[in-house]
Amino acid sequence: MSELLRLAGLFTAALLAGAINSVAGGGSLISFPALVAFGTPAILANATNTAAMWPGAVGSAWAYRRDTRAYGRLMAFLLLPSLAGGLLGALVLVNTPPDLFNRVVPFLVLMATLLFALRGFFQRLARGGIAGGDVSFTGYAWGFAFQLFVATYGGYFGAGIGFLMLGSLGIMGLGDIHGMNGVKTVLGAVINVIAFMYFAARGFVEWPLALLMATGAVLGGYGGARLARHVNRRLLNMFIVLVGLGVTVWLFVKP
Q1: Residues 151, 188: contact at Cβ < 8 Å?
Q2: What is the pLDDT of residues 43-54, one digit of tens each?
Q3: Is the separation of the CB atoms in 197 and 86 below 8 Å?
Q4: What does the pLDDT look like over 68-86, one tens digit per residue?
Q5: Which residue range(s) make up the domain with 85?
Q6: How buried is 211 (Cβ within 10 angstroms: 0-12 exposed, 13-18 middle, 19+ buried)?
Q7: Total domain count for the chain?
Q8: First to last CA, the chain
């Protein structure tokens, strides 16, 4: 396999992942397996994928800044478990033996695929809450504990954390779907950035690939946002689920 073909394939995968993230989410189900398929060891692929995707996450968080104004106190409260969990997950990943991670990866991709397939359930949980920003003490306690879990998983692997956070926010009692999307996007960006910083400090980022894919993801995200109204969401969702299941099978059977 020529290096030019490898770089072109990774750029295309990142372009597609960025577009999918801007329309439906789940782009890492494309970009992470592409890195593995083109020869990057799984742990380095995961860290490099985080490095490539976080600029898009930050851009999305900025776009939601107006929708999150009513939830400033809640986001500040959930910032600590997001930072701690993201760092913890990244720390665990870096110290996971490569052979063990290779065995775990198919299950992680399968779980991320199932989370995407079940995102409607989490969105219904979100819509079942109240429209305002008031959260009970029990809601705060639940939110802190679950956000720590989600952030740890996010720092370790990451795909599907947005759907988990939507469900959690719904259980906490929130009901404004736009504000909730904003909160989960901001917290997701925090998790990705802290994990990326740790990966970079430990030398686990393949920088040429990360920069190439970040460029593709940003371009894809811009294009996807412009085309979002013209995309058949149902067909796109089915495509992402089928890709995730196909990648899961490939990861299980590949040598």
Answers
A1: no
A2: 999 999 989 888
A3: no
A4: 777 888 888 889 999 999 9
A5: 3-253
A6: middle
A7: 1
A8: 18
